């Protein structure tokens, strides 16, 4: 595999906005590479003219994590990703600060001759991408963060990921506390909250505290919780936020959000949306793992 001297991803990707191209986004792949290939064929994706956003969790639990990561690296000029919690898990395991799980399918990456180079490439990817009126993150943006604030916090965490002390960052990354944002947060507690909000958030309490236990549908959500994008005090309604992560939510296009994780890993569909026309295209997953055995 050829690795180029890739530039660090920046917040604004205005060079993708020419009229001759189509711009797509696809939800969580998690190593379901055959479904990705089928979906790109179905939409007629052209790497020479089109651009593709991936909502993160490109690897893990699906059968072809290595092939999916290699695809993203090979096509980095047309494919942009944001980091998801499973991508961060791969990086943590890769540097010895994460515990492998029996549901992991990342070993072929870790044992590959180019494994270190692939992990270095992945570690350089962003937590947030913005292009004009659109923003992409893996899980969501905290309601009280305006887009400019979210970008600033993403850059703050990305600097640690790309810095010389990244191993220490991963040693401090895991944990559910603090549960609420405070501008006065410092050090690794601050970084942990930022990463958790961008990569693990689904439901919030009415005090905008992160709740990591609830993973089911909005309809079944208990009355003391609400989806992050339903908070009445939301400060980021001026952009369309594209995200994945919440497979039980499924495809959603409302409240200035587009949710794209439609459970390909669990035997659902892999979904693409044309960001200009908002037309969706799906392929049915070939199999799927037992979701009762492995809570996402």
From TrEMBL:
E.C. number: 3.6.1.41
CDD domains named among the record's database cross-references: MPP_ApaH (cd07422)
GO molecular function, one term: bis(5'-nucleosyl)-tetraphosphatase (symmetrical) activity
Domain Calcineurin-like phosphoesterase span(s) in chain numbering: 25-175
SUPFAM superfamilies: Metallo-dependent phosphatases
Catalytic activity: P(1),P(4)-bis(5'-adenosyl) tetraphosphate + H2O = 2 ADP + 2 H(+)
Function: Hydrolyzes diadenosine 5',5'''-P1,P4-tetraphosphate to yield ADP.
HAMAP family per the UniProt record, alphabetical: ApaH (MF_00199)
Family membership noted in the UniProt record: Belongs to the Ap4A hydrolase family.
PANTHER family: CYTOCHROME C5, PTHR40942
Official protein name in the record: Bis(5'-nucleosyl)-tetraphosphatase, symmetrical
UniProt gene name: apaH
